[in-house]
Amino acid sequence: MKKSLLILTPNPAHPSHHGRWPAVLDAYRAAFAGFEIEAQPWSEPLTRPYDLVLPLVAWGYHNAPEEFRRALAHIKAKGYRMLNPAEILSWNVDKTYLRDLAEGGIRIVPTLFADTLTPETLSRARADFGQDALVLKPRISAGAKKTLVWEGTDVPDGAPELDAMIQPFMPAIQSEGEWSLIFFGGDFSHAVLKTPKPGDFRSQPDYDAHLRAQTPPVTAVELAYQALEYVGQTLLYARVDMVRNAAGDFCLMELELIEPDLYLKYEEAAPARLSHAVEHALGMCGHRH
């Protein structure tokens, strides 16, 4: 009998996410061809048993983060096996996890967290970072939503009003790009280098960035493993995003553990590696709710 997987998909109350996600779900269905696959919105209660719940397409959680955290808690309380685990996902919702990583000795892009953005906080950030160009973004966000590069003294229109984070703009994002390293079952699978189109700073394919498979430098892999080791448990999947600083050292930008694009199409063996990681996890957990 096939093992059953439930893939969580976007909340239908957020229609802005109805565009690309069905194709992403289809790619996961193809990768998990040896399993019985069902899908349902993360916002709806689970009503039948599954061997494993996967939040791989739980897009839009940033629009209702507390609702998402309640859904995670409910899944855990009902005894479902979910990977990545609910407590890790809840921690990963808010980018203040970067502060935890930094305190754990992981080199991150320097970050100042602010309850509200004011001219005073921008001035303090410039003093801390030693440069004028800043990146302003929400603590809870996805897909570069409300993310700006700013050199002015006043708070710009379109910036996050509350619960913001401020970082120095890293020029390497435009000259080299952002590295994304993908891991399955704790093992490195593949990497993608993402370079924004000329004049832009956003590395997502939605903004016409140039993505290509690339062998990452050893120092990039080392930083990624340090971040995963901090989490303290083997993760089914992870994407570690990073960029070089002015000295050429890699700095972690994000540790994506909820519903990252795993760039399966950029590595021929990636779907099989992901499927094997699920098989291994099911063999370890050995129970069904």
UniProtKB/TrEMBL annotation:
Entry superkingdom: Bacteria
InterPro entries for this protein: DcsG_Biosynth_Enzyme
Protein's UniProt name: ATP-grasp domain-containing protein
Organism annotation: Asticcacaulis excentricus (strain ATCC 15261 / DSM 4724 / KCTC 12464 / NCIMB 9791 / VKM B-1370 / CB 48)
Lineage of origin: Bacteria, Pseudomonadati, Pseudomonadota, Alphaproteobacteria, Caulobacterales
